[in-house]
Amino acid sequence: MFNYPSLKASDVAPSSLLFIPDSSRSSSDSLYSADILHHPSNVPLIPPATQRPPAPPRLAYPTLSRHPQGAPSSTLQHVSNDRYRTPSQESARIIRDRAVDDRVPELKTVLLPRDCLPRFLSIAALNTARNRETCGLLLGRDQNGKYVVTVLLIPKQHSTSDTCTMDEEELVMQFTEERSLITLGWIHTHPSQSCFMSSVDLHTHSGFQRMLPESFAVVCAPKSTPNFGIFRLTDPPGLQTILACDAKEAFHPHPDIPIYTDADKGHVQMKDLSLEIVDLR
Ligand SMILES: [Zn+2]
Ligand SMILES: [Zn+2]
């Protein structure tokens, strides 16, 4: 695993962003490291500095973990199941009545191909059987005022039972730039845990959502019921709470307020649409 230098949003050239840049929404703090990190492990997540490959040149991809140095400390203990699903995290999720049309009015609708989740789970099945996470990016376009997910991109990655780390993200940048795609969301598995947004997931997602308010996170938990969730941070207060949180620990509780919610009962709609899958592994 290696880390990229953190970037300020203002350093990032709009043309190289995977997201729709919106400087009015960007705060001045650094973006995130390259890692998609979820659940701590007793395996050190980064090798000692002397073993790390040299940092690549500056990258514009808004990275995926909140840890500027890329990883929680190696002193974190491995945990199984929901040790980090604190009461505050659990209660932070708003469960809304499907019958209520509570689409957030200021958000554009995002159309997600209905078969995206089963196809992603199929791609992830080998990792899942080995109790390893899998992650992907949901890319698409603005079509007639709606965002439409058209590509599921599986980046090069390495994973453990509780982490998934994207590698060579310059390949992802190249792909999205060449195709003029927008990163609309991200998807990952919890191979043995339940379906929720961990504190690390919340911080990861805050980096997406502050760049594009419509960004959503899909969590697939094939061994759990429910086995998937499509989430976003509440705005307010969830997005602001997470962006302002400076907890140093990878996993930590947040205030007992509604921090995230089910986007699929809001602005994300599943439709029968075609989906291209690009696997960079
Ligand atoms: Zn997760
Ligand atoms: Zn936090």
UniProtKB/TrEMBL annotation:
Swiss-Prot/TrEMBL GO biological process terms: protein K63-linked deubiquitination; proteolysis
Keyword Metal-binding: yes
GO cellular component: endosome; membrane
Superkingdom to which the source organism belongs: Eukaryota
Coiled-coil ranges from the UniProt annotation: none
SUPFAM superfamilies tied to this protein: JAB1/MPN domain
GO molecular function, one term: K63-linked deubiquitinase activity
Pro residues bias: start-end ranges: 45-59
Required cofactor(s): Zn(2+)
Domain (MPN) ranges: 109-239
Region (Disordered) residue spans: 42-90
Entries under CDD domains matching the protein: MPN_AMSH_like
Zinc in keyword set: yes
InterPro entries in alphabetical order: JAMM/MPN+_dom (IPR000555), MPN (IPR037518), STAMBP/STALP-like_MPN (IPR044098)
Record's keyword terms, sorted: Hydrolase, Metal-binding, Metalloprotease, Protease, Ubl conjugation pathway, Zinc
Similarity comment: Belongs to the peptidase M67C family.
Protein name: MPN domain-containing protein
Organism: Pisolithus tinctorius Marx 270
